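Lab notebook, bench 4. The sequencing result for the construct came back, and we need a structural model before the next group meeting so we can plan mutations. Quick request posted to the team channel:

Model the 3D structure of this chain.
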Amino acid sequence: MRVFIPGIDGYLGWALAQYLCARGHEIAGCDLFLRRNWVKEIGSHSATPIKPMKERLQAFKEKFHKELYFKEGDLRDYNFVIQIFKSFQPEAIVHLGEMPSAPFSMIDIHHCNFTQTNNIVGTLNILYAMKEVCPSAHLVKLGTMGEYGTPNIDIPEGFFAIEYRGRTDTLPFPRQAGSWYHQTKVHDSHNIMFACKIWGLRSTDIMQGVVFGTRINEMGNDESLCTRFDFDQCFGTVLNRYCAEAVIGHPLSPFGIGNQKRGFLPLRDSMQCLNIAIINPPKEGEYRVFNQFEEVYSITELAEKVRRVGDELGLKVKIANIENPRQEKEEHYYNPDHPSLLNLGYKPTHDVEQELRIMLGDLIKYRDRIEAKREVLIPDIRWDGTRRKSRLLSEIKQ
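Done. Here's the predicted structure in C-alpha cell form:
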C-alpha cells in the first residue's frame, strides 16, 4: 500500500516509516522540521542524537533497500499538499504533521495562534487535497485521548447512545479539551467527520494515549535510524521525562498530588495499532474513532514503576512531587473503552516495566546529553499565562 506520512521526521513519524516499510508498504512523507526548531526554542534537544534528513534517508535506503520519497514543505501551503498527492497518489495518509504539545500552545497568544492555524489549516488542506486527488484514500488522523478530558462517566470510542426527553440518538461523545492544543484536535475531529459526511471520504480518528519508548525493533542498532526522544516540559511525555530524570539522578517529578490517570502504550505498540488501522480501512463515507492505549495508570503509579526498574539497574531513583503548572483535575474517574483495535488483532507486546528496562538501558548511553539540559526538566509554562518554575510540593505545604 502507498502510505503518505506528514510529520515523518517526528517521534512517531520516523518510527512508523520504518515499521510500515518492513511490512511491504511503499512510504512517502513530508516535514518542515519544525519539531527540531520548537525543541531548540524551549532550550532542549533530543536525548538520542538526530541526524540530518539526508543522512536519515540514506540509512533508510541501506537498511530497507527501498527509497523513501520525501519532500520538505508546509501543510499550510495547499499547492504543496496537492502536488505531493498528485505525485505519490497515496492510498492511506497517516497525518502526524501537527504541533503536538499542550504546554507549547499555552505559552502566549503567538504560540496559541500558531498552534490553531498550523494544526487546523494543515488538516483542512489534506482533506481538500484528498477530495480532489485521491477521494478513495484512507485518512488515519492522530488525535488524542485528551480530547475527551476526564468526564465522570465511562468514555466510549467517539460516539455514544443518548436518551433525552423520550427520544434516542447516537451522537459524538462530548469533548472537553484541556489546552489550546487539545482544542485543535477537537476541531480536527469535527472537520474530518464533516468531510466524510459531505464528500464520502473515509477516516479513522485515532484517540491515542500517552506514548513512551526509545525504539522499535526495526531500527536495529543504527543510530541514524533512531527516532527522537524529547524530555523537556513541552515535548517530553511523562514516562519519557521520568526515564530521563532517572538516568541523571534527578528526582522524578509528578505534577501535583499525582493521581491524574491516563491511557499509555509503548512506541512499538503505537506502531502496531496504526498499521492495523491502515490495513483495515473503513467503508466509503465512514468516520470512525479508535481509542488507542494499552492500560490506564496514574502518573504516580508510573513513577513507582520507574523507581522499581531504576533501582534494579542501580540508579537509586527518588520521587519528588512538584507544583502542577496545569489547570486539571488531579483526582478523577477515568474509564475509557478501547475494544476496536483489540478486535482487529492488537496484541500488546511488552508490559510497562519490560519496556522501561529497554528505555533506561538506551538512555544511560545518552546520560551526558540529558545532563547538559537538566534545567528543562522542571516546567515553567503555566496555564494562567505566567512563566515561573514549579516548586516542590513539599515546600509549598510547609
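The mean pLDDT is 97.
Will bring this to the meeting.
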